[in-house]
Amino acid sequence: MNDQRIPLTHADYQAISATLGEIKSRLSDAGDLMAAMHIDHALQCLDPENPLNQQATAQA
User: Fold this and answer.
1) Burial level of 45, CB count in 10 A (0-12/13-18/19+)?
2) What is the pLDDT along the chain (60 residues), one digit of tens a residue?
3) Which residues, 6 or more positions from 39, have their beta carbon under 8 angstroms from its beta carbon?
4) What is the predicted pLDDT for the residue at 57?
5) Rounded CA gap, 45 and 20, in Å?
6) What pLDDT sits at residue 1?
7) How would DSSP label each residue in 18-59?
8) What pLDDT sits at residue 51?
9) Under a CB-based contact definition with an 8 Å cutoff, are residues 38 and 12 in contact?
10) Organism's domain of life (predicted)?
11) What is the DSSP code (8-state) at residue 6?
12) What is the DSSP letter of 10?
């Protein structure tokens, strides 16, 4: 494992968010709500506008 951090680009975040959104939708449609909820949480963690992420960035 590498300790060096390589930040994602804005395009990377957008691509990941789009893919996770599609997966969440498919899981919800399939009735797998627990997995969809976990994907939703991942999307919230990726959202730079989320106040929790801004707080974590400020502490780092």
Assistant:
1) exposed
2) 577 888 888 899 899 999 999 999 999 999 999 999 999 998 888 887 877 766 555 665
3) 20, 23, 24, 27
4) 56
5) 12
6) 59
7) HHHHHHHHHHHHHT-HHHHHHHHHHHHHH-TTSHHHHHHHHH
8) 78
9) no
10) Bacteria
11) -
12) H
Phi, psi angle pair for 31, to nearest 5°: 90, 10
Six-digit token pair at 12? 């990377």
Main-chain phi, psi angles of 41, to 5 degrees: -65, -40
Read off the pLDDT of residues 41-54 as tens digits, 9 standing for 90 and up: 988 888 878 777 66
Query: Long-range pairs for 38-41 at CB < 8 Å and ≥24 separation?
Result: none
